[in-house]
Amino acid sequence: MSVIRTDKWLLDLYDRPVELCEKLTAYFEDVYAPEIYNHLISHGMYRYPLKNGKEFVRQLQDNKVWELVQKEKRQLQKLWEGPSIPIFIFPSDPNNRKMKQEHNGKSGLAFNDKLFLFISKDNTEKEIKALFTHEYNHVCRLTSYSKKEEDYVLLDTIILEGLAENAVRERFGEKFVAGWTTYYSEDQLKELWNGLVLPNKNTLKMERKHQDILYGLRRYPKMIGYCIGYYLVTNYMKTNKLTSKELLEIKSDTIAQV
Fold first, then answer.
1. How much is the pLDDT for 49?
2. Which parts of the sequence belong to the DUF2268 domain (predicted)?
């Protein structure tokens, strides 16, 4: 599989997104189109109605976004010996203020057998490459690591995120890593790791606290799970002089050494 030409889907069904998501039911097990659409919306996909939607799709076509991602997919699949999966590109939600402020309107969603990119009109070619790198690294970790995703605990999730953003750093440099990587100083990260994240490292994915710490919701510091994951993986990579590819199969507990 490769990059699916969702541009053609969008030009036909842009104003009927649930019908558009009917085309995705073949890639999910026992899930209906409205559920798929709601799930994708929660991760950044556009909400209908959206002004000048088809015009934006044509703009993405003119910028050869589908071809760009296909080329990146070939490169990274070879570099990381990753799986061949279907990749879906859709416009992102321009009314999602948080996504716009923190991620310049782009987002992604990765499974072990498929990947979604949600792109805004403001994203540059380098930003799209960085986004794809992050999400495809997730796919490679999920398929390479011996632990099943349903058994992941908080430590596994933050390492997953740290690996993906370090893959971006490795390929494109500090300039293109996410803004949240700079939220805290090293001393703050060390303190937050020992005082907050480490005591909760075995929190299961199904528990509310897992998401709260990961994203820094409620009383927790903003994006703290992501930030700690990036901090742990960066230290491990630099200390052991390892590449992103070499980390894909290493246990989370091994990487989490500070």
1. 75
2. 65-256
